[in-house]
Amino acid sequence: MTSARLFSFVGADHGPWQVINSPYVRGEPMAAVTHINRLAGESKPNNATWVLRGVTSNERYVESEEKKLLIAKQEPLGRPASDCAAMILIRKNETWWKLSQNERRHILETQSKHIAIGLRYLPQIARALHHCRDLEEEQPFDFVTWFEFAAPDAQAFSELVLELRASEEWNFVEREIDFRMKRSL
Amino acid sequence: MTSARLFSFVGADHGPWQVINSPYVRGEPMAAVTHINRLAGESKPNNATWVLRGVTSNERYVESEEKKLLIAKQEPLGRPASDCAAMILIRKNETWWKLSQNERRHILETQSKHIAIGLRYLPQIARALHHCRDLEEEQPFDFVTWFEFAAPDAQAFSELVLELRASEEWNFVEREIDFRMKRSL
Questions:
Q1: Are A164 and A141 in contact (CB under 8 A)?
Q2: B84-92 and B173-183 as β-strands: parallel, antiparallel, unpaired?
């Protein structure tokens, strides 16, 4: 039985999303790929250079007022006008994972404004967060975040990422890879 | 690559822990077994009636002061004097999982005193919480909690469970099975 919340992220030499950047890397890099596919369920195509897995899950830091704002403003993945995508892979260090819930929330939101920053870019930037840390097979990253937006919003998306990357929270990020994509023709 | 945090819980007709109760059940019951084994890693013995899986993970609700108290007081599983064990399987309903982080924390601790109640029974009752919800294969429960204690503390353990079961938090529990065990001879 496969979870309906499980997604596979396949890096290969063809697929619906074409990588258009030389990915930003902090920590160990990954094998280069020209295309990426986000697939529901478990998937291991023969031609894959790598496959990552993650599950969409309950939110770990969002409080009730923030949740109302998010629900009111956010739009789903798969919008026809979204011809751009990004996939950001994050691994946080052991110090982060040993913090208590209130310490992590304090860094993430009180200091780093992670949720508030993301809210400013809604509804243009659609987003799905996938947790990898608690899967049965150990994964190279803790999170896969997948974003979709229209080409005119690509600059705003870059600013969003830079803002988060400059925050206190990112001091706990020990590995990050940032792929930018456009729809394959 | 198997996660070092993954555990398998095997119900079978022999094993290191002998079931000594007619398990308390809320919601759908499980096939009866006489013995249970908690094993590190992935395990699927041929004689298993069922196998559950879960991962130990970061804490989701414990705040810094509580964490200090827990670390100061708690003892590990596997103590030679612990000749009793319990395995409590919990599934919470969709309403719970749709709450925001602060709403869940409010119910779990402000209203239900889950962490404070558990602290009162340390160090006698050793405990390991395993998360099942985000595993690749969908699991029948959200949590497996494993407890170990010495026979003279069995009554205190029963009181701990009854206290939690009477709390507001348990209104969100839609399935629960509570196995009590002693070491097999």
A1: no
A2: antiparallel
Tell me how far apart the alpha carbons of residues B157 and B148 are, in angstroms, rounded to a whole number: 10
Q: Which residue of B has its CA nearest to A102?
A: B63
**Which residues lie below 8 Å from residue B152, measured CB to CB, with a gap of 6+?**
none
Whether B80 has a pLDDT exceeding 60, the answer reads yes
Specify whether the CB–CB gap between B183 and B17 falls below 8 A: yes
Residues in chain B with CB shorter than 8 Å from the CB of A107 are none
ipTM value of the model? 0.87
The share of chain B scoring above pLDDT 90, in percent, equals: 95
Asked if A60 lies within 8 A of B59 by C-beta distance, the reply is no
Using one digit for the tens of pLDDT, what is the confidence trace for A57-106?
999 999 999 999 999 999 999 999 999 999 999 999 999 999 999 999 99
Query: Nearest-CA residue of chain B relative to A3?
Result: B138
Contact B141, B90 (CB under 8 A): yes
Q: Do residues B73 and B53 make contact, with C-beta atoms less than 8 angstroms apart?
A: no
Band (A137; pLDDT cuts 50, 70, 90): confident
Partners of A136 on chain B (C-beta within 8 Å) are 2-3, 6, 42, 53, 55, 135-137
Give the CA-trace dihedral at B41, B47, B49, B54, to 10 degrees.
0
At B145-166, the pLDDT tens digits run 999 999 999 999 999 999 999 9
- Integer Cα distance of B54 and B67 in angstroms: 22
Closest alpha carbon to B50 in B102, B89, B94, B6: B89
Secondary structure (3-state) at B150: coil
Strand locations in A15-75, DSSP E? 17-19, 24-26, 35-40, 50-55
A134: which chain B residues are within 8 Å (Cβ-Cβ)?
5, 55, 57, 131, 133-135
**How many angstroms away from the CA of B41 is the closest CA of chain A?**
9
Cα dihedral sign, B168-B169-B172-B176: negative
